[in-house]
Design brief:
Radius of gyration of chain B: 22 Å
Number of helices of chain A: 8
Radius of gyration of chain A: 21 Å
Distance between the termini of chain B: 48 Å
Mean pLDDT of chain A: 90
Largest sheet of chain A: 6 strands, parallel
Helix content of chain A: 25-40%
Number of strands of chain B: 10
Strand content of chain B: 15-25%
Largest sheet of chain B: 5 strands, mixed
Low-confidence stretches of chain A: none
Order of helices and strands of chain A: EHEHEHEEEEEEEHEHEHEHEEH
Helix content of chain B: 25-40%
Oligomer: heterodimer
Structural class of chain B: alpha/beta
Mean pLDDT of chain B: 89
Number of helices of chain B: 6
Structural class of chain A: alpha/beta
Low-confidence stretches of chain B: none
Number of strands of chain A: 15
Largest interface: A-B, 88 and 74 residues
Strand content of chain A: 25-35%
Strand order of the largest sheet of chain A: 4-8-3-1-2-9
């Protein structure tokens, strides 16, 4: 029987697992999950890991993986060995009536969403962690751990843990600032507001590029994908890459001085006006 | 875009990809520490990109090669890798391919490691620091939860993060002496490629539909700060 192979690294993404199970059922495929636990601590040679994974692809028709830094490097190598099409950062996956994997992703750096089909025998796609809401997963096959050959290397390498920045991915309430916030001082104000609500602060790519916020806070296609209960977008215009990172949020509130900003079309509630005045008023009301 | 969903670049201003600036500067720094070292810039894109690429000579780049042909247009990851790998092989001997970790248009970041697979060599992606030592280059790779420091095995492909290195500025003297250097343009025929291996024809992923609206449209209810603060109190506090 042909398989849908889900490759996992350090983290298991419940949303992706659930999605993979649905796709497998729709495509009449057997779901198989292989995992390289603690992938970040595995040998630094991505090619060796890709070769190791190649041995698991004999029956694979569809291969999915979360787009972590390492799998984002390993999957393209595997795709080369299989001469398979690989679509990065899909935001939606579906099985067509003819059993093909239909992949949807933002494209071309401006407001476009492309639907892609793959004509190679094996169809591959990555999904950013957190893209699909982590609902309860039904019955899943046992995860098969790959350890052989992934731990020992002749190369001496060293890992330095980074300070945990997990707060924005896990935050229930996220206050995110864009270029419109204008400065680091502006972001300090967002921080105070977020604290009041018991939330964390995120940022758009423009705000990160401008140096107002650290990269770890970046929400969007090239940052972190988030699914908070409440997302408050402050001075964010709503570029498609940003929307790709937060469209799964529960309630979206947009605050922007430009009434034509696209973010309002993706928000449940909107306030048009100067963000500082609006935040001051809200702070006062919440006190 | 045209009818086959190929990006039309005719009207667009071309610029060097931000992450590529880090790669070019890193290459120039390695060259400075390597007796007899040479830097070749290899790029795939429209012919008009030659003007932007020509400016790199003034920075100390020795050779610039532009892979340009209508047959290359509309390439997906596999077709792009095939084209770049063929060009890299055609260039002969080199120690290291440096590239930006992703392109600003599609941002897939898949090319560096796929190129390494095609050329059967090591890859180090998402690198945010390169250190030259007596024993070779040490790179620092940024993963989600840790930094991996690893000695680089050459030949290899290294992809650099945006803003890791800031590209130097040329002096007026350098500009003057680089003025007459020529970007070499290679076409599909020059590389012995027929259309079926590269570009749209050589691609196995096909864009079948493009939508200008992101999914997740909502009905926005306009409100006041006071009302929303009350709503937030209900939901959050």
């Amino acid at each position: 029987m042909q398989e849908l192979l889900l490759i996992q690294g350090a983290l298991s993404d419940k949303g992706l697992q659930r999605n993979a199970a649905k796709l497998a059922a729709a495509g009449n495929l057997r779901l198989r999950i292989v995992s390289i636990a603690q992938l970040e601590e595995a040998i630094p040679e991505d090619a060796i890991i890709a070769q190791r994974l190649l041995g698991e692809t004999g029956n694979a028709k569809i291969i999915l993986a979360p787009a972590t830094v390492r799998l984002r490097s390993i999957l393209p190598m595997l795709a080369w060995y299989l001469q398979a099409g690989l679509t990065a950062d899909c935001t939606h996956l579906e099985i067509s009536q003819t059993g093909e994997l239909m992949q949807t992703r933002p494209a071309f750096g401006n407001s476009l969403i492309a639907t892609i089909r793959t004509v190679s025998p094996v169809q591959m796609a990555t999904v950013r962690p957190g893209t699909f809401p982590a609902e309860t997963v039904g019955e899943l096959p046992a995860v098969q751990e790959l350890t052989n050959g992934c731990r020992e290397s002749a190369i001496q390498w060293e890992n330095t843990p980074l300070k945990a920045v997990g707060s924005i991915a896990q935050a229930d309430i996220l206050v995110a600032g864009g270029a419109g916030v204008g400065s680091m001082e502006g972001f300090a104000k967002l921080e105070a507001f977020a604290q009041k609500l018991g939330g964390a602060v995120g940022a758009s790519r423009n705000a990160v590029d401008a140096g107002y916020a650290p990269y770890a806070a970046q929400v969007g296609l090239t940052g972190i994908t988030v699914c908070p209960k409440v997302y408050i977008a402050v001075g964010i215009s709503g570029a498609v890459q940003h929307l790709a990172g937060m469209s799964g949020a529960g309630i979206v509130i947009a605050i922007n001085s430009d009434p034509k900003a696209p973010i309002f079309q993706y928000a449940d509630y909107g306030i048009v006006g100067d963000w500082e005045t609006i935040l001051d008023e809200m702070m006062e009301e919440l006190s | 875009m045209d009818g086959q969903f190929r990006l039309k670049r005719d009207g667009a201003n071309l610029q060097v990809n931000i992450a590529d600036l880090s790669a070019i500067e890193a290459a120039l720094r390695i060259k400075a520490e390597t007796p007899g070292g040479e830097v070749t810039v290899l790029s795939m894109g429209p012919a008009k990109g030659a003007a932007v690429l020509q400016e790199l000579f003034a920075l100390g780049v020795d050779r610039v090669i532009l892979l340009s042909d209508r047959l290359f247009a509309g390439a997906d990851t596999l077709a792009t890798t095939r084209t770049l790998a063929a060009a890299a092989e055609k260039l002969g001997q080199w120690d290291c391919i440096l590239c930006g970790r992703r392109a600003m248009d599609a941002e897939t970041g898949q090319i560096p490691s796929q190129l390494a697979a095609a050329l059967q060599m090591s890859v180090y992606t998402n690198v945010q620091q390169l250190t030259m030592t007596e024993n070779g280059i040490i790179c620092q790779r940024r993963l989600e939860n840790c930094l991996t420091t690893v000695p680089v095995q050459q030949p290899c492909v290294i992809s650099l993060c945006e803003y890791t290195y800031h590209l130097r500025l040329p002096s007026i003297m350098d500009r003057r002496s680089a003025k007459n250097k020529q970007v070499e343009v290679l076409t599909a025929a020059d590389m012995g490629f027929a259309g079926e291996k590269c570009g749209l024809q050589g691609s196995v992923t096909k864009v079948i539909h493009v939508d200008t609206k992101a999914p997740g449209l909502r009905k926005c209810q306009y409100s006041t700060a006071k009302e929303l603060a009350q709503r937030l109190r209900e939901v959050c506090l």
